[in-house]
Amino acid sequence: QVQLEESGGGLAQAGGSLRLSCTTRTFSGSALGWVRQAPGRDREFVAGITLSGGTWYGDPAKGRFTIARDNAKNTVYLQMNRLKPEDTAVYYCAAGDTVSTLTPILGGQGTQVTVSS
After folding, report:
1. Helical (H) or strand (E) element with 83
2. For position 36, what pLDDT does the model report?
3. Sign of the Cα pseudo-torsion (19, 25, 30, 34, in order)
4. What are the residues facing 83 on neighbouring strands?
5. pLDDT, tens digit, for every residue of 72-112?
6. Residues with Cβ < 8 Å from 97, sequence gap 6 or more?
């Protein structure tokens, strides 16, 4: 059984900040990250981090979001600053062998992020 806990979404105003967390012992040895999906739009890569801490960001996240992980806590974080209304989406914790193969962890409900203008 997959162990996964996503949290931290919510409502923010444009320019504000939110911090997402994902704890998953099942995928603690994998690359981790976040993907998002807004209504009517394709799923979009947000950010990923390797087990050793190498980070990658999708274009919408560059310069505004920071991904980090605490391997001792089996947790990956996404600090989102200077939020924009277009960041509104369901954010899913993702895992993969590499950052380029990140896919949402099955069983995850995602966490809703809503940014108001």
Report:
1. none
2. 97
3. negative
4. none
5. 999 999 999 999 999 999 999 999 999 999 999 988 899 99
6. 30, 31
Count of residues in the chain: 117
Residue 108 CA to residue 3 CA, distance in Å, equals: 9
Nearest one of 44, 41, 7 to 22, comparing CA atoms: 7
* Pick from 33, 22, 114, 13: nearest CA to 74: 22
With b for 16 or more beta-carbon neighbours within 10 A and e for fewer, the 9-44 pattern comes to beebeeeeebebbbbbeebbebbbbbbbeeeeeeeb
What CA–CA distance (Å, rounded) separates 69 from 50?
9
Q: Nearest to residue 4, comparing CAs of 111, 116, 113?
A: 111
Determine the number of helices (DSSP H) and then strands (DSSP E) in the chain. 0, 11
